Amino acid sequence: MGLSVSEMHRGMVIRYDGELYEIVEYEHSKRGRGGAVARTRLRNLKTGRVIQTTFKGAENTESVFLESRPLQYLYHDGESFIFMDNERFDQFPIPADVLGDKAQFLVEGTNVIGYYSGDELITVDLPNFVELKVAHTEPGVRGDTVSNVEKPATLESGAVIQVPLFVKEGDILKVDTRTGRYVERV
User: pTM for this one?
Assistant: First the structure.
């Protein structure tokens, strides 16, 4: 028995065609006498690939419950990111493609949440905000008073983000990991 289109919602994890997907966009519509349809964008939790799919009824989908466990990022070995399960203390690698863009905000000791389907790690969620040190940025131009002028800054994790002109090397910045944008200087 599949999910009906009215049971689906953004953020839900579903099994579709044997793969696990997160619904990243969801639009429900009902036209005239026809049945309801849901236009969705689904992100494959293993590969990160995004597909667009329209569901017309209870197709071959089912809701999936993911168990969450606290993990800590230890180090990067060149191919994978090594994490430790904070409850079981075992260490394991997570390929870079599973983490996607999230990897650019990881520094040693970062605590994250791992989501499991059975014993298989499916995805990792970073905290919404992380504090990272500025490793390199050009000095701001003195006297430049135009508002909202930004410059690139390389953070200790290797991420490059746009920051206001007053930010200098060594500053600690609060960064939103969902958008990759500067929030404030700490």
Answer: 0.71
